[in-house]
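Escalation from tier 1.

The customer reports that the assembly of two entities below gives different C-alpha cells on two consecutive runs. Tier 1 could not reproduce it. I'm attaching the input and our single run for tier 2 to review.
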Amino acid sequence: MSTQRSSSRRAFLQTGVFGAAAAALAACGWDGGSKLQPTFGTAAHFNDWLSGKLFSSSKHAPQFSPTQRSASFPNYYISSAPPELAEPAAWRLEVKGLVRTPLSLTIDEITAMGRVTYTWEHHCVEGWSAIATWTGLPLRAIADKAGVLPAAKFVRFDSFDEGYYNGWDMASAMHPETLLAFGFNDKPITSDHGAPLRLYAPHKLGYKLTKYLTTVTFTDKQPGGYWEDQGYPWFGGV
Amino acid sequence: MHRHHWLVRVTHWLTVILIAGMIASGLQIYEAYSHFGMRGAPPYPNLFDGRTLPEWARLGGWLAGGLMWHFTLMWPLIIVGGTYLTYLGVSGEWRKLIFKPSDVRPAIDMAKYYARLTREHPAQGKHNALQKQAYTGIILLGTLSVLTGLAVWKPIQLHWLTMVFGGYQVARYWHFWAVWLFVGFTVVHVFMVLVVEPATLRAMITGEYRGKYGREDTA
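Tier 1 run:
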C-alpha cells in the first residue's frame, strides 16, 4: 500500500516536472508561442485589473524641487526625426467620441483654460527614472468642457507621430495629475518632447504618455496602443 | 526515515523552476536599461553596469517578452512560496528550520567542523545550525524579492513601500542584488547536496532519507 502510494506520487511529480519543462521548451518564442500565449493573456488581464484596483484617484505623486531635476531627460518618438507640424497654426486638439459637445481647440485656447506646474519623477518601462517639471492643463478640464457621457469607459489618444497612440482607463485619465502638457522645465515644450501638446502623468509609465497629440476620443471600447499591441502591459500604471 | 512532506518536495521543485524563470526574465528586463540610479546621476556600484547578460541566461527575447514572463511567473511563485510558508507554520516544522539566537553557538561549532578545526560532526536535529541559517536567510531573501518587486512595479501607488527601500532606483538595485544572492545560495546548496550529503537529494525527491545526519525526533 505504502509502496503503491509513493510510486504514484513519484509519477505525479515526474509528470509535473517534465510537463513544466516541456511547456517551457515549447514556449521558446518571446511571446510564449501558441502554448503559453493564452496563459500570458490571462495573467496580463489579471495584472491590468489589479493595477486598476491599486490605482487611487486621490493619491498624489510625490513632488520634487526644481533644483532636483535630472541633468538629462531622454526624448523619444517613433518617427525618424522629431515630428514637426507643417502648419503649426492649423493644429487643433480634437475632442470627440462619447461627449455632449465635441471640441476643436487651438493651443492658445487650451493654455488660456488654466495651468498647473509640478516637478515629478518619471518612470520608464525600461527601468530608468528622471525628475523634470511639467506645466499643463488637467485633462479633466477638457473632459468637463466637452461633457463626457457616462457610457465612456476609456480614452484614446492619437498623435501625428507615425500613428503612435494609447488607450487609457477613465479613472487614470480623470486624475487631477493627468495633464495635457505644454511646458517642460519652465519652457514651452520643444518638438523633441512632444510639442505642441502631449499627455503627461506621474502615475503612468512613459510609453503611455502620448506625445504630439491630435485627438482625444472618449469611448466605451478598450483601445490598444502602439507598444501595448506589441506586448507591453496595457494599464502601464506605476 | 521519512523526511520531507510531499508539499515541501513539490513546492521545492516548483520554486526551482519558477525562480529560474523569474531570474532569466528579470535579466532580460535588465538589458533594457543596465544601470541603477537616476538619469544624469552617477550610477550605483554594479559589476554588471552597462552589460548584457548572455542569451542563454535570458528569457523573453526582448523587453515586452521579458515583462510578460516576469509578470506571469510572479503569481505562481507567490502562491507556491505562500503554500510552503503556510505549511511550515501550520505543521510546526518551522521550529526545526528557523534560525534562533540559541543556534549561534552550534553554528560556530558547525563552522569549525567544516573548517576542519574539529573532527567530530556536531550533534544536530533535522538541520544543523548552519543549514538553519541558510534556509532562514533564503526565506527572508524570497520575501525581500517580492517586496522590492512590488515597490518597483507600483512606486507611486505603493509609494510608502518604495520609500522603505530608499526610493525607486534603490528598490530596483536591491531587487537585482537578490538575483546574485539567490545564485550564490544555489551554488553552495547544490555543492553541499552533491558533495557533502547526496542522500538529501533522494530525500527531496522521494521524501525518504537514508543518510547519516540528523534525527527527526530532535529539533
